[in-house]
């Protein structure tokens, strides 16, 4: 599978599939149907890997236009904590893993107050407070959206499994690499020395 004629995917198709980046849920919202490739026999919707690859490229190009310290990345999902922290260390931006404090973008009287120029969220549902505040202050929102997400108020949708441990690590690893290439800080994939393992959360076990 190719993005455009003569242009290969950012990683091998097998790696995308092994990380489950394409595996959605048993729910498909109206706004996510254009990104769906097929539905499996077990009822799970499958996202189009080619489109995901294109959107990762587009998001990286878009985010690379901003000063690093003006980019804010948010994840309320536990499997997103380590990937966004590794991403922010790689491209030198700000991360809010775990709980997003209400007023972070809208209330200058609280200690947590920030004034980013753009935000990247892991899940429009889990990170709805960040999405809401981003809209209120008028800054662009880039979001990873699964088949069960709505995309209202999201400026750039990256269709992907936003719940899977390995899927999230691969997405943020690729975004890091592509942003650094867009900035001219590295010239090729080979110059990106951070291993994928540094972006991968440990498996969570039930207590």
List the helices and strands and how they pair.
Elements: H1 13-18, E1 36-39, E2 45-47, H2 49-63, E3 71-75, H3 78-91, E4 94-97, E5 118-121, H4 128-137, E6 141-145, E7 156-159, H5 165-183
Parallel strand pairs: 3-4, 3-5, 5-6, 6-7
Antiparallel strand pairs: 1-2
Helix pairs in contact: 2-5, 3-5
Q: Short summary of the structure?
A:
This protein is an alpha/beta fold and 207 residues long. Helix content is 31%, strand content 14%. The relative contact order is 0.18.
Describe, in plain words, how this protein is organized in 3D.
The structure is a single chain. With 207 residues, the protein is an alpha/beta fold. It has a single domain (13-199), classed as 3-Layer(aba) Sandwich (Rossmann fold). 31% of the residues lie in helices and 14% in strands. The protein contains 5 helices and 7 strands; from the N terminus they run αββαβαββαββα. The strands form 2 sheets. It has a 5-stranded parallel beta sheet, sandwiched between helices. It is globular and about 50 Å long. Mean pLDDT is 93; it is low at 1-6.
Features:
5 helices; alpha/beta; 207 residues; Rossmann fold
